[in-house]
Amino acid sequence: MISGRFDHVGLNVTDLPGMTRWYCDTLGMEIFFEFALDHVDFHGVMLRHPDGYHIELLHRPGATTGIQATNPVEAALTLGYSHFALDVPEVDPVYGALIAAGASDRMSPRPSPEPGVRMAFVADPEGNLIELLDRTAVRMREAA
């Protein structure tokens, strides 16, 4: 068995400065470090959230659009990256705040197929899917 801890998810974006601002402003992330591979015109920004997770935003001119799913079920028709998920204390207000900040609805808040979990999906301004999960009831049940 290999031991390790999940470190980050990488998203390819067309507007690196704009998406950096969006993730910092909406999710409370901060720039951890920036890098450039000038010989291939490739730039990136690693963002860090106070809760410890990281999102790496990557930009290379000439990149083409990949998955642009209208919902998570459609995203499952394409192999590879689908979405990343955030465990939040309450799905509904976070969903509303992200929509107000420019995210688009992909699945409104509702019960998850996982018992005791509430979920929703939004897409960031470039169409990357973000799942919101509230596992509060599950954690309370496990702690009892």
Can you offer a commentary on this structure?
This protein has 144 residues and is an alpha/beta fold. The chain folds into two domains: 8-59, 2,3-Dihydroxybiphenyl 1,2-Dioxygenase, domain 1 (Roll); 72-143, 2,3-Dihydroxybiphenyl 1,2-Dioxygenase, domain 1, CATH 3.10.180.10. The protein is built from four helices and eight strands; from the N terminus they run βαβββαβαβββα. The protein has helices at residues 16-27, 72-75, 91-100, 136-143, and strands at residues 8-12, 30-37, 42-48, 54-59, 83-87, 104-111, 118-123, 129-134. The strands form two sheets. A four-stranded mixed β-sheet has the order 1-4-3-2, with helices on one face. Strands 5-8-7-6 form a four-stranded mixed β-sheet, with helices on one face. The protein is globular, with a radius of gyration of 16 Å. It starts with 7 loop residues before the first strand and ends with a helix. The model has no long low-confidence stretch (mean pLDDT 91).
Topology summary:
Blueprint: E1 8-12, H1 16-27, E2 30-37, E3 42-48, E4 54-59, H2 72-75, E5 83-87, H3 91-100, E6 104-111, E7 118-123, E8 129-134, H4 136-143
Parallel strand pairs: 1-4, 5-8
Antiparallel strand pairs: 2-3, 3-4, 6-7, 7-8
Main-sheet strand order equals: 1-4-3-2
CATH superfamily of the largest domain: 2,3-Dihydroxybiphenyl 1,2-Dioxygenase, domain 1
Computed structural class: alpha/beta
At the third CATH level, what is the topology name of the largest domain? 2,3-Dihydroxybiphenyl 1,2-Dioxygenase, domain 1
Please tell me what the overall shape is: globular
Q: How much beta, percentage-wise?
A: 35-45%
Helix content: 10-25%
CATH architecture of the largest domain: Roll
The number of helical runs is 4
The radius of gyration is 16 Å
What profile does the largest beta sheet have?
4 strands, mixed
Total domain count: 2
Oligomer: single chain
